[in-house]
Request: fold
Amino acid sequence: MAVRKPYRIVHLSDLHLTRTAGARRTELGVFSPLKGMNETFARVLATKPVQQSDLVIVTGDVTDRGDLPSWNVFWKTVKKAGLQKRIFVVPGNHDVCCLGARLPFKREGYRAADIQKAIKGLKLGGQATRFPFVAQPDRRVVVFGVNSNNLGNLTILSNAMGKLGYYQLVSLASKLHKYRDVPVKIIALHHSPNIPQVATAKKRGQPPMSALSRKGHQIPQEQRQALRLLCITHRVRLLIHGHLHLAEDRRVSGVRIIGAPATTEPLPGKGSKRAYQFYSYTVQGQGGRVRCELKTVTI
Ligand SMILES: [Fe+2]
Reply:
């Protein structure tokens, strides 16, 4: 069999773009929230690893507040960077959920309104708006996009919780079966399907989350277990997510799970140039191997 050209994927996440350039990111309990995300995003897209990629996947929180002008900033920047035809996007909680509070008697109406917000933004760039979506950009690669958001949340306290839903999981199972012969299956969602408990986090050298904070950011146990079981039974190569703004690369029951850092958030440091990180996945040969790298760009 002829050797095929490597297929390069870049994984970005949690851009938190704002309608105006100088606006600050919504961050609870932070004295001086981050700003400048729009400009950073444009500069990251201009870097060599992104420009040379065959595909860009964004795992949610494209916008900070889910408003259409911020989605416009996103698509304008993507277009300017020449990436509009090679990008897949799934929404995050900041793109859909309520960041304030609302009355408790209209949950269904809120759910519909929440997803509509993301649909409007996704449609601007010709993206899929039904979840899970499936797309096969290369003979060796298939991407399943999952909506993991807690639509219809009533307060800011539950805006970051995850939810997959029974019917989305059933549909995902059937799509995974349909594409069973594609060697590299990637599932992309916003929420982490596996937030470690305190002891495991410490062992991995990452900041531990309290039980309360885990509950506030997690997909319910039976749903995340079902997702991981699907990954095992269908030999999913990569389960990729964002949401926690943390670079994480781990294996859980044989499934490789990769959490992207927030692309527009610099690494700690001073000076005029700042470093930013994102993952890249290179599919090699016929799809037998996928090389995963955490890339650092200084801009
Ligand atoms: Fe985020």
Notes: The pocket of fe (ii) ion is lined by residues 14, 16, 61, 92, 94, 243, 245, 262 (CB under 6 Å).
